[in-house]
Every structure is written in C-alpha cells, then in structure tokens.
Design a protein that fits this description.
With 232 residues, this protein is of the alpha/beta class. It has helices at 19-30, 37-50, 58-64, 96-106, 109-125, 135-139, 153-166, 173-189, 211-226, and strands spanning 8-12, 33-36, 70-74, 80-84, 87-88, 128-132, 145-150, 202-205. It has one domain: P-loop containing nucleotide triphosphate hydrolases (Rossmann fold, 3-Layer(aba) Sandwich), CATH 3.40.50.300.
C-alpha cells in the first residue's frame, strides 16, 4: 500500500511544546489516528529502567531490544495505549524519570531503527497525525502537512510543572526548566535524527497562546495546507 493513499500530518517540536495534547485534539476533530511517537520511545526507556540499564547506555539498550515487544492500541475514545511485553504501561511511561530517559534512548541509532518501521507502517495503513522530534525530517519526510510547534523554554517548563501537579506528582519548577533546557540541547545536538525544523514545515510558536488558541492555529495551518476540510 502506498503511503499517499492516506494523509499524514507531522508535528515536530521540543519537549513540552504541547505536541501530544494538541495532536490528540486535532486527530479527534479531523477523524485521524493519533500516533504519539514519544510514547513509543518512553516505552523503550521504561524497559531499560526496569532492567537496571541506563537509557543512555547504547550497548546495554541495544542488547535489550530483541526481548522488547512494544505495541499500541486505541480505546473507545481514541486514546493511545502503550504496551510493553503485553502490559499496559500508558500511565507508567509518564513518570518524570522515564521522560528524561526517553530522549537518551531516542539518541541511540539501534533504537530508532528498531521503531522506525513501526511508525511508518501506521502511516501506510491510516490517516495519521504523528508527533515527535524527527517526524517531518526522517520518519515521514513526504507528510502532507508538516508543523514545527514550539514555545519558549519558560512557557514549556510552566506547562510541564502544572501537568505534574495535576497528576499529584511533586515538582520543582526551577528543576523542570533546567531539564527542559538540557533536553533541548540533547535533542538538537544528537548525531542521529536531531531535532530540527524541516525546510517545508510551518513554524507555530504558542508561547503567548492558551490551548484553544494553539488548537485553532494548528487547525488553520492544516486546513490551508490540505486545501479545505482535511478528511473530505
């Protein structure tokens, strides 16, 4: 099946830019499948942490991959659930330690190769909105719409802090800002599939926008690029 039999929307951007939340809402609005690629890498990082392997240890993580089965499914509301060797780890992969480990694991070429076909296969079989760090540049270079979503580090740290508090987790705003900046540097500076804006991607800065304003901005970009209603 040719990729172009289905439409694909790539949303890239740094940590905490709101990619996942906005992509979920857009997918529901447009009738697309939402693919949170960050969750896929988080699942690999969780597998490493659970076995005592540092997610930054390329040899150690690569050695784990043959025994790691990462799958996903969707519930009745369209929510993506991640499974690690058959266990639903959708909630577990949102812990702060796993988030930090995900970008380390994602810098390992063997991990990216391991998960690349999984992501492309979804785009061959469904209309998808896929978000991550290198969707428009590496995973889906022929995506119909590419958006680079960003916001200032301070705004992203604030959003992450509020998200953790809402989940009942302890969080330090200063530490989160430091982690956001460190992750930006790590994601942008890695040798394999670094975070960068694709040449044909539309830049969307939501620093001064609330969620609804950000949603309308992205929906407008998608509709303009697809020339009308995307799911017609």
């Amino acid at each position: 099946m040719d990729l172009k039999e289905h439409r694909s929307i790539a949303i890239d951007g740094p940590s905490g830019a709101g990619k996942s939340t906005l992509a979920k809402r857009l997918a529901k609005e447009l009738g697309y499948h939402y693919v949170d690629t960050g969750a896929i890498y988080r699942t690999v990082a969780l597998a490493a942490l659970r076995t005592g392997v540092d997610p930054a240890d390329s040899n150690g993580v690569a050695a784990l991959l043959p025994g790691v089965n990462v799958t996903m499914d969707y519930d009745g509301d369209g929510l993506q659930h991640m499974y690690l060797n058959g266990e639903d780890v959708t909630a577990a992969i949102r812990q702060n330690e796993v988030s930090a480990g995900a970008s380390k694991a994602a810098a390992i070429p063997a991990v990216r190769d391991f998960l690349l076909e999984t992501q492309r296969g979804l785009a061959r079989n469904f209309d998808v909105i896929m978000d991550g760090r290198d969707i428009g540049t590496v995973v889906l270079p022929d995506a119909d719409v590419k958006i680079f979503l960003t916001a200032s580090p301070e705004a992203r740290a604030e959003r992450r802090w509020r998200e953790l508090l809402e989940r009942g987790q302890q969080a330090d705003k200063v530490q989160i800002l430091q982690e956001v900046m460190e992750r930006d540097a790590r994601d942008s500076g890695r040798a394999t599939a670094p975070l960068r804006q694709a040449e044909d991607a539309v830049l969307a800065d939501t620093t001064e926008l609330d969620f609804e304003g950000s949603f309308r901005l992205l929906l407008g970009i998608i509709q303009e690029r697809l020339g009308g209603t995307p799911n017609e």
